[in-house]
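User: My collaborator sent over this chain with a note saying "see what the structure looks like." That's all I know about it. Can you take a look?
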Amino acid sequence: MGPCKPRTFTAGQDPLRKFDGAISVRTLPRPPDRLFLFHGIMRPSRGIYAKLIATGKKLPTHFHPSQWEFFRVLRGNLTIYINGHPTHRTPSDGELAVPPYSHHVIYDTPGTEMDEVEFVVSASDPGEDADVATFMDQSFFENWYGYQEDVFQRGEKLDFLQVLSMFDAGGTYLSPPWFADPQAQNRAWEKFREQLEQEAKAKKEKNE
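Assistant: Without extra context I'll predict from the sequence alone. Here is the result:
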């Protein structure tokens, strides 16, 4: 059986709206050191997010082997689940950097009353000399959100190989089954903290 054919075509659409308005993303001018900069709005009461909340489920975690990903909340409450630990963010917390190989997923913070979560997300630019062939970019977001919409709202059958291919093309990979082990999550969490400390130290030395 061949892979699922897209029901909708949104290439270049800006803003990009998916899941009956549950999430919308528009492109912002990117800083020189970032590959993209997106302004996102998540509406937990709509579409796939409402279904996940009703069942108590969450989207699976993933990681990026070659890029840092950055999140900054503008309005509301956002939870970034990183290496088995929830990190709650509000506008007063500033930007959060997620290093490569950190297993993560984002969702609205449970128990909060905000109908919308507004945030910006970006990723580091590996540069022309980087020894990697694929990156997380705008095309990846368009493909992934569009595929989820076709599967969860239009009844297309999920093709795991197609998902893996799509993620590989976007420099993104689903967390492997062994990551469900709490000890593995704790080791990854400690590594995450070490990476953040090293990044903060490097920035401090650069500014001195």
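A starting point for your reply to your collaborator: The CA atoms of residues 133 and 171 lie 8 Å apart.
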